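Data card: per-record layout.
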Amino acid sequence: MSQSNSPHSPKSSKMRRKPQQARSQARVEQILDVAEKLFQDIGYEAATTRAIAAHAEVSVGSLYQFFPDKEAILKALAVRYMQTQYQRFLDLHTAQSITLPLSSYVDRMIDVFDQFYTDYPGSRAIFEQLLDTITWSAIEKIDDFDYQVVTELARFFHSRQSSLPIAKCEHIALVITKTITELLWLSLSRDQEFRQELVAETKLMILSYLKQYLDEENNG
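The structure for this 220-residue chain is written out next.
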């Protein structure tokens, strides 16, 4: 994702409070689910907080208990996407994955990213709207998820190849993460055939790159 130069102030675009009880959490999730659908169906600008509250069957006052404005809802949606993607990435790194052939690991890793976009087709529109609406400083938490992925990936590479310094593993992980996300992001704007071809090419490129650093003989 590219940085935005939007002049909007991010100071109000935070959740007013985080829900502590299950009932409140369910209400927040309902608001986010409805907002996500409205943003996709009628667009961000047309979807008012009043409309979101009405479709979520909560009062406007209840909505404002958690979200001061639409920007806060938009950011919360993006964070929810990133949390989901990061958890899938963590689930990939089982004890058995350390001994997988490198080609199998690369296939699975990139499939995690690609499957996320398949399961959440609206995520691209949400992220684009976020970047168009508020400043980059307001989405630092989202950017943090990228670096959590980098850190986890570097830890995994070091586990597979302990001779590689962790700092080098972090550099490799950063290159891989940014390359994959940018290419898959590009693929979302094209037809399914193009997307599948780009995913396959991305796998070939990442595998070739990793072979320069990870020794297959030490793993399986």
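Known properties of this structure: Residues 1-12 have pLDDT under 50 and may be disordered. Residues 23 and 175 are 42 Å apart (CA to CA).

See the next section for split statistics.
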